[in-house]
Amino acid sequence: MKYNQLGKSDLQASEISYGCMSLQDDHAANARLLHQAFDQGINYFDTADLYQKGENEVSVGKAFKGRRSNVLLATKVGNQLLPDGSTAWNASKAYILQAVEQSLRRLQTDYIDLYQLHGGTLDDPIDDTIAAFEQLQQEGKIRYYGISSIRPNVIREYVQRSAMVSVMTQYSLLDRRPEEETLKLLHEQSISVLVRGSYAQGLLLDKPAKDYLGYSAKEVGAMATAVRATASELNVSAAQVAARFVLEAPGVASAVVGIRTAEQLAEALRIEAFASLPSEGRQRLEQVLESKQYEQHR
């Protein structure tokens, strides 16, 4: 497994990381799968207080209670659970300082390696949000912080005003919008990109084609066909091609892959065996569809 530095931090994250949102409700089964991933080189595990109303963090915490110093635990904050079971966006300093205590308790740890704002808008009290992260860092409750966002205007604000080390964003052959500005900006500022959605909800693998982010089902099918053709030519899998495409983009440190089964874990681990996507293959894939641009939050 290859490991990459996250931004200017001293965190070394596995190139393939574990997106824990896909975990099941069975803590014991989850622990077995998480341990398998760890034993085969994955050291970065990404969850959020929103997932399963906190139970996802509980499952991850139970699994790594005895291995805490050997893993990087990342979680997210900003979606406040209300008494009626719904959620409301809350990026205030007071809420973040309160929410981190609950995440620490569920994760059974006294520090979080990477604490991320789970979204964000220009209407947020951004300086107060950053102040919350800075205070938690000074107190030793988090090691570093970042944001999870697809919004260029929000990302620019945090680049200018914060000391974040990473941005998690959606990026795939069916969503190349980050290529317009985000990837270049973050790379220039030595802020790492954590990619989610590299399989485009499975549409690049084996899911039936459907309309997706402005592309017609026919266009989505054409891209999936091109991915399979490239995979066949190189004697690798479609998942290996889809993931390697995003991993080779400037500034990308890790592909956060949602893993629910042992089969999905095995597929994710095989990505490492495919070291490089040939430039001709990459160019052919890039030419299948015209890249979209963000229409909102520019």
TrEMBL record:
Pfam families: Aldo_ket_red (PF00248). Residues 16-289 form the NADP-dependent oxidoreductase domain. This is Aldo/keto reductase.
